[in-house]
Specification:
Number of domains: 2
Shape: globular
CATH architecture of the largest domain: Alpha-Beta Barrel
Helix content: 25-40%
Strand content: 15-25%
CATH class of the largest domain: Alpha Beta
Radius of gyration: 20 Å
Structural class: alpha/beta
Distance between the termini: 7 Å
Oligomer: single chain
Largest sheet: 8 strands, parallel, barrel
């Protein structure tokens, strides 16, 4: 059975909404720890477990680490970035210290999974001046990416290590490691988990750049599940190349017998709208036919206006795809099968 994950956030932090999500078909939840630690999410997690008990289910709780991901720092308030205006990187838009020396004139800077695009115009003593080419509102702690630039950061932050030691106590069943660059990243996380008594916690390797794709064969044996994390992976090159990358990862996982998850913008339009686009439901359906063991929505349940409706569309589409796969298999049709990889 394909597992169906939502993401905890302001739109679904109360017990009643979480109960409705489980009733709509959710089987697991992701908690993003890029903004706060496990101890600060204790109330959310308690609501999650209370809702699960009420619905008679045992939830899967995935904690998504900060890892070596580049992120904007804390902002005093949401920042309006109007197209055609200029902004100072390092002051108006705080970036990690390791990023600023790597900036060069003409360098694109993608923010919030590529929703916003800045381009460096001039280097300054304390950062750079950048032109806004694709504007919008920037919130604190959103992702940042510099296409073509390798900024080396440690696999784990101090906060990550603390969260790993708390993971078992909070009922985490899985850890998602972002921006996996090599097998050593996964081995480092697994080492801390084991030291903390979390040997039974599954390790999910998020493939979010071309380096991860190219090292996939080495990564697969060290991970319990591979995550096709299409947000930042889509920033690693022209967006039209992303579908082929997703297919390559899926094929490699099927060949190795390793389960994989597909995530990011599966129902993005439902952050605002009560029904999805036809393209979105087709995307979910085809991910299941490609053999996905898990699918996940993020902002749709975390901050969207219609979290329960989004989960209902996700679950119904997944189950319809599973039924189609069974029918096609019985009829001798040739389609990929992820049944052997799905969790039980």
């Amino acid at each position: 059975m394909v597992q169906i994950y939502g993401t905890l956030g302001p739109a679904c932090s109360d017990t009643k909404t979480l109960e409705a999500l489980f009733q709509a078909g959710m089987t697991g939840v992701r908690l993003n720890l890029s903004h706060a630690g496990l101890d600060r999410a204790a109330e959310q997690i308690e609501h999650l477990h209370a809702a699960a008990r009420s619905c008679g289910v045992t939830p899967r709780l995935l904690i998504d680490m900060q890892g070596p991901e580049l992120r904007v720092g804390a902002l005093p308030a949401p920042l309006e970035l109007a197209e055609g205006t200029s902004v100072r990187l390092g002051r108006d838009v705080p970036l990690p210290a390791a990023v600023l020396p790597r900036l060069t004139p003409g360098q694109p800077v993608l923010l919030d999974d590529g929703k916003l695009l800045l381009r460096v115009a001039e280097l300054l003593p304390d950062g750079a001046l950048a032109r806004v080419e694709r504007g919008g509102v920037l919130q604190s702690r959103k992702s940042a990416a510099l296409p073509g630039v390798d900024v080396h950061l440690p696999a784990m932050t101090d906060s990550d290590r603390k969260n790993l030691y708390l993971a078992k106590d909070y009922g985490a069943t899985g850890v998602m490691q972002p921006f996996v660059r090599g097998r050593e990243d996964l081995e480092a996380v697994r080492g801390v988990l084991n030291a903390a008594g979390g040997e039974g916690i599954r390790l999910f390797a998020k493939i979010e750049n071309l380096e991860g794709v190219e090292k996939l064969v080495d990564l697969i044996p060290a991970a319990d599940e591979i995550v096709v994390a299409r947000g930042d992976l889509g920033n690693s090159g022209p967006l039209w190349k992303l579908p082929a990358l997703q297919k390559r990862i899926a094929a490699a996982c099927r060949e190795a017998g390793r389960p994989f998850m597909v995530v990011t913008q599966m129902l993005a339009s439902m952050e605002q709208n009560p029904i999805p686009t036809r393209a979105e439901v087709s995307d979910i359906f085809n991910a299941v036919l490609d053999g996905a063991a898990s699918v996940m929505v993020t902002g749709e349940t975390a901050v969207g206006k219609h979290p329960v409706e989004a989960m209902r569309y996700l679950a119904h589409t997944v189950r319809e795809a599973e039924a189609y796969r069974r029918e096609a298999s019985a009829a001798g049709g040739f389609i990929a099968s992820g049944a052997d990889f799905a969790h039980t």
